[in-house]
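ok so I'm stuck.
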Amino acid sequence: MTLKERIDADIKQAMLAKDKTRLQALRSIKSQILLAETEKGGTESISSETELKLLTKSAKQRRESAELYAKQGRTDLEEIELAELAVIEQYMPQQLDEGDLRVRLLEIIQRVGATGPSDIGRVMGVASKELAGQADGRAISSAAGDLLNNTDF
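replied:
not stuck anymore, here's the structure
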C-alpha cells in the first residue's frame, strides 16, 4: 500500500471519527502528494524517497510553527501544530536517538575519511542522504560538528 493509499484510507477513518485535527493534517499531506505528482507532468506516482521528503518538510514546518507560536504565547495554535505534527510523524520512519545517530555518523565519518571540522561538508552530504527521515537536519549537523571537533573518534 502506497503512502497515498494509506492517507486516503486514514482520511475516511478520520472523517467517520470526526477527528478534525487528524483530518486536517492528512488532507495537508495528500495535497502535497498531489502537487508533487502533477509537477512531474501527469498522473505519475512519486517515489518513496519523494514521499519521505514531503513528510519531512511538512513535519519541519509544523515544528517551526509550534516554536513560533510558543514564543508568541499562542498555546492554542501551538497545540494544533503539535497535534498535526504527531499525525505526520506516524507516517515517517522511526527517528534515531542521539546515541544511535552518533554511531551512524561515526561510521560515515570513517567511511568518507573525514579528519576534522573542515570535512563537515563531505560528512553532511553523505549523512543527509543516508539518514533522511531518520533524524532532523539540525541534529545531524550538530552531532557531526561535535564529532569532527573531537579528534578522538
